[in-house]
Predict the 3D structure of the following.
Amino acid sequence: MAPHPCQSVQDQLSAYLDGELGTAERHQIEEHLSQCPACDAEWQSFRQLGQLFRESVPAETPPPWESVESRMLPRRLPAGPWWWSTTTAAAAAIAALLLVAVGFWASAPKNQRDRIAQPSEAGQDEETSMAGMAMNAEHMLEFQRTMNDYVAKLSSDPDQAERFLLTKYDGQAVSPDQAEALVGYQPLISRGLPGGYELASSSVVEMPCCTCFKAVCRRSDGSTLVLFEHDDDAAGWFGDRNRSMATCGDKDCCLIELDSNIAATWKEGSRSITAVGARDQGEVTMLVNALKRS
Amino acid sequence: MDPNRQQPADSFVSPALVQSAAGGDRSAQREIYERTCDLVFRLLVRMVGRQEGEDLTQQVYVQAFTKLEQFQGTAKFETWLYRIARNEALQHLRRQRVRKTVPIEIEPTTRSEPTIEQKEIAERLQAALRQLDPELSTIISLKEDGGLSYKEIAEAAGIPEGTVGSRLNRARRELAKLLKAEDR
């Protein structure tokens, strides 16, 4: 049975409007539209939509290139062909992923470890299953880009940097005392900060690696230092930036070069502390000593 | 990608430019960004709104430059890029659905102020698009904003070319219906 002319025409209305039909088909449709008010009305409504799109071109302009560039991993020195840097970046990401994964697994409570070791069940919340162990290389790279962006913002506009991280990772502004109910431990800084620092804000942030307690501290000169207390070892937070191990007080610290200052991470009991925006190893040593558990 | 391969006609991005960008040349990456970001941004704003659109635009390019060596050069570079944009937006919308229901918000504009009428039109269209199936809003935006051919839309959306027309029919009918319902 031949299709109803209206049905056949309506099936091809978009193709007709978008110039995707041959001459003969076009003529057939034109002829039908001139005789069928219902199909013509539908065609007119399609045309009007096109007009609506043209009249509503967003007035905003795309973000500047610099904002994209700031999220890209630091460029490597030209030590080899382009595929070499790509491959080594991927290898670094995978190595970092393994470190994070092992750290997370080892520090997770047993019931959580058992759950992690099981294949994820159908319908399980994707965010939950991804959060700890299963952060794949792509997520790891995305996390590193976010931290890269955060670090860049932190030096130019600390308040914006904090808003950025809180928005990105569902941060919740809470006092150090209130944080205990969310992270399951009393943050070390709830006993007070070392002299010369005051607490500007504190929050709990659902980072992809773990739930962190974050304290934004102001030095007396108005500059910012951020302290994270967390369960993982922060191995992959800063991508392939230069890093070195150093002894600060009685702790082994990993020092990471940022653009204008450093980050440092060290173990304190079963958790880790990461300081972002430290000036030098001397300041890290002072923080290590001041934030001791006992 | 073979730098001698002929890029499909009317692409803004030459194979040589892609090759340089894949080698980490920041100025080549910037040139690609500046030549292509308008439509990528517009597509993402249509799908997820302005604020998220900005963030996703950045993510799309970071991802594109990270895996540029995977671009085979058989399709237009822009089509490959739109596919990444579409995938990022869909992934974002899925994550959003898992976390919470986000109310449709008309976000304030920041640059050259449109007229009140243009603003109203944009708001109505944006609100209707956000109610449409994201796959359909991608396809109609690629057509209406980007002017892509059915073949290019099929490549960007990962669907058979023969289904583009029928999906556009559906998108246009549903969109017209949503806009009509708003008028009441």
Observations:
- The first helix of chain B runs from residue 15 to 22.
- Residues 24 and 68 of chain B are 10 Å apart (CA to CA).
- Residues 1-9, 99-111 of chain B have pLDDT under 50 and may be disordered.
- Chain B touches chain A through 55 residues (CB under 8 Å).
